[in-house]
Amino acid sequence: MAEQRLQKVLAAAGIDSRRKCEELILSGEVRVNRKVVDELPAFVDPEKDIITVYGKKIRAAQKVYFLLNKPKGVICTNRDPRGRKKAIDIVHTNERIFCVGRLDADTTGLIILTNDSELTNRLTHPRYGIAKTYVVRINGEIAGEQVVKLKKGVWLAEGKTGRASVKILKRRHTESSIEITIRQGLNRQVRRILARVGLSVKSLTRTSLGKLTVRGLGVGKSRTLTRVEVAHLKKITSD
Ligand code: URA
What we know:
Elements lengths: L3 E2 H7 L5 H9 L3 E3 L2 E2 L6 E2 L6 E3 L2 E2 L7 E6 L16 H4 L7 E2 L8 E7 L2 H7 L8 E8 L4 H9 L2 E2 L2 E2 L4 E7 L3 E8 L6 H8 L4 E9 L2 E2 L8 E3 L2 H9 L4
Parallel strand pairs: 9-15
Antiparallel strand pairs: 1-4, 2-3, 2-5, 5-6, 7-9, 7-17, 8-9, 10-14, 10-15, 11-12, 13-14, 15-16
Helix pairs in contact: 1-2
This protein binds uracil.
């Protein structure tokens, strides 16, 4: 595991806030591998180093992984000056978790929450190209040429988007729905690529990420990931 700031590791172990942990370090009460560390910055490997506070070994922060079927109106950041409901408030845990990537407030569906920042960085890094599938309800009838454009990728401000897989689920005069899989994670990507080909979104739901799906999980419900699911996420983000 990569080295982390000592105060971050102490805070993750539930000692105190990061700022208070900094003070604790400077006061000389923290030892790493028996040696007092009273200067900052200080870096440790929480999986290898033995860290003590007031002579007592700290408890390693338990890695936790949840899958939430996010409802509409819930946001994926840990702080919101507007006081909207947050995804982290729906999941019951004592660990300090955060969302892996983001879904818009208006988007429903699969979001992973964890305290594993290394896996989070990997899952959101473009080099791994993790497949994310969405079901989109669209106003009006989708045309064949719009599907072709979506499949090839379209130009956005950031450049041309990668190819998408598109399956038409329903095509009516008043409403259509498609299943679309993309491997990038640009901000509001699905809404923007659909707008680029002239389609307006009625609703957007993420149904899967890698092999993980929201199947069987009601909107607003969460569950812990199984060991197999965590192993899968680690496998698809290994070099
Ligand atoms: N694309 C979007 O436009 N919104 C999301 O929430 C996720 C992907």
